[in-house]
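Question (not urgent): is this output format expected?
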Amino acid sequence: MKSMTGFGRGSAAGGNWAVEARLKTLNHRYLEILVRGLEEHEELELRCRRRLEEAFARGKLDLRIELRRVGGEVLTYDAEVARGYYRLLERLIRELGLRDEVRLEHLLALRGLLEEAGPEPEAEEGELWPVVERALEEAIRTAEELRIREGERLRGELESYLDELERELEGVAARAPAVVERFREQLAERAEELLERELDRERLEEEVVLFAERSDITEEVARLRSHLAEARTALYSEGPTGQLLDFLAQEMYREVNTIAAKARDSEIARRTVAMRLKIEKLREQVRNIE
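Got this back:
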């Protein structure tokens, strides 16, 4: 089980380049990927996206790649711009009648002559990808380690919620038969008070049977037990389970609501309120699971 929240960092160097990858993962219903830092290298960005799609099933992924030249030419210049500046300065000297000469430091002081050397996107992507890939893999690995540790913590929390739900459910199941019997007694007492004569026992039993049918929660209890068992299995299954657990939590909530509506009993009502609160907490944590 993995949490969808994590952070990973990776770095690598090769050739003339050093690469740092920072990966942040957050909760999201689907898989959403944002890659920054490779806007000038579409092929590299596409490869990063494909690798993230392989590594993650759900979550909002924010990957930032930083490229830094560590060898080769750090700065470059535009020869045409330099010639243009030179001719312009010579003309200015002549027009002003100066005896100065145009020197290199004059040109270097002008904006736009020197600029940071960057890789040619098409020519150097083959050189860059192995370095980017190593940094990316390290970022994925460290993010996954954090997500797994957080997932283990969440699993323990979810198990405690399932245990509490199971205890409340067994209390409801044990209480249900007494509800019908209590209704029979209350109905008999009320009828005697109103009629002040001997009860029509056959009519009384018909009313009790009708009440028992309307308040029968056997099927809901059975389905809820099944959902709880399936949720426990999902906690230890391979692969992403967040969406399955979210679905099961919704189904549990629906069954508990039906039980609350059917069983006209204060004790069962109290237990269903407690169960709804636990399911809400369960769903809140399930949203953090991949």
